[in-house]
């Protein structure tokens, strides 16, 4: 029997992958953002994990292409990291913007971003 050499996903990796994917950032850019934060996952591994999470937690998506951001934020809240740890993982800075911009068009990103009414926003991470 072959042993798997692939490490289990940490909560930090899950948070980064799900948060940025749900905000319209493509898997290749998410892989680079993970790498910048000290983690290594391929684009394919991220896509597979995101699909598995969406299947296991169907409330995370309103439709197959539209994320329910309030549910995503609740799901993140239920993982093992504190709010400050989560915020440090998902803090998006200029270097992150350059990474994303180099790997996907801004127009595509804007098309992927869900329409969010900030006046009705309730998610912890969505509003910060």
Short description:
The protein is mainly alpha-helical.
N-to-C SSE string, H for helix and E for strand: HHHEEHHHH
Give the percentage of residues in beta strands: under 5%
Q: What is the global morphology?
A: globular
Total tally of structural domains:
1
Could you state the oligomeric state of the chains shown? single chain
What does the model show?
With 128 residues, the protein is mainly alpha-helical. The protein has one domain (11-112). It has seven helices and two strands, in the order αααββαααα. Strands 1-2 form a two-stranded antiparallel sheet. A hairpin with a 2-residue loop joins strand 1 and strand 2. Helix 1 packs across helix 2 (27-36) and helix 2 runs antiparallel to helix 6. The radius of gyration is 14 Å and the shape is globular. It starts with 10 loop residues before the first helix and ends in a 16-residue tail after the last helix. The model is unreliable at 115-128 (pLDDT under 50).
